[in-house]
Amino acid sequence: MKTRCPMCGTVNEVDAQQQAAQDVVRCQNCGNAIVDDTDIELQDIRQNEAFTPDLELSLETEEAPDYATPSELPFSVPEDLPELEPSADAALDIHRSLQPKQRPRTPWWQTLLMLLLLCALILQAAWFTRAHWLHFPEAKPLCEWIDCSIAQKTDVQAFRVIERQLQAAKDTPDALRLQVRFRNDATFAQPLPKLQLSLFDSGGVVLARRSFDASDYLIPVPAANTLAQAQEVFTIELLFEDPGARASGFKIDFL
């Protein structure tokens, strides 16, 4: 005999012994209890018959948990608990939390220190570039007060002899006359150089050597702070004692 499960619609086969032993059998598919009065004959079952189980007859209702009943704690709660008080570390309310955070103020002594360092940096830069500021008339009173004069730039190697001539002096016996023209080839003005004259014999031995300051070879005598301007040409004339026939050459150096 075959019987259909009212829960899932599965057709189950029930033998005679099982039917004689009990009135309720279990579905082989879902395990639902099948009462024997739902038995059907094999010839009444159609293979393509659509079957919709009656869920209202087979669903078993379960009791919903009672959430209103408080659950028991695994520990005992004393009755004399103190009341809760707000902590100083409590979060800010919404109005205070929306306000932007203010940056901490810089101490006054740090501000003063930064200003002093900035002033020192400016003064140091002005001191190292004082050669440029000396050309401004407004800076002269300040330079006189703080003595910002700078050392005069010099390059004696920039002086070049462009013409020279050594011959016997006609109006002075036993004397030689040296005529020299030299030029300042530097790109800047510089003090007049000291001139050194050396006399040599035929073997290159120095017979006589003498140095002349600008006051010795220039007429009229220049002032102490006179400068040779860039590309300026000077013509000088020197008169000195003749060392004799042994002298065969001379050399002029700028010191």
Low-confidence stretches: 37-61
Number of structurally distinct domains = 3
Main beta sheet strand tally, sense and closure: 3 strands, antiparallel
Number of strands: 13
Rg: 62 Å
Name the overall outline.
Answer: elongated
* Biggest sheet, spatial arrangement of strands: 2-1-5
Number of helices: 7
Q: Look at the structure and name the CATH superfamily of the largest domain.
A: abc- transporter (atp binding component) like domain
Structural class: alpha+beta
Q: What's the CATH architecture of the largest domain?
A: Distorted Sandwich
**Roughly what percent helix?**
10-25%
Query: What order do the SSEs take from the amino end to the carboxyl end, as H and E?
Result: EEHEEEHHHHHEEEEEHEEE
> What is the CATH T-level topology of the largest domain?
Coagulation Factor XIII, Chain A, domain 1
Identify the CATH class of the largest domain.
Mainly Beta
Query: Could you tell me how far the N terminus lies from the C terminus, measured between alpha carbons in angstroms?
Result: 141 Å
Report mean pLDDT, rounded to a whole number.
75
Measured by DSSP, the beta-strand proportion falls in 25-35%
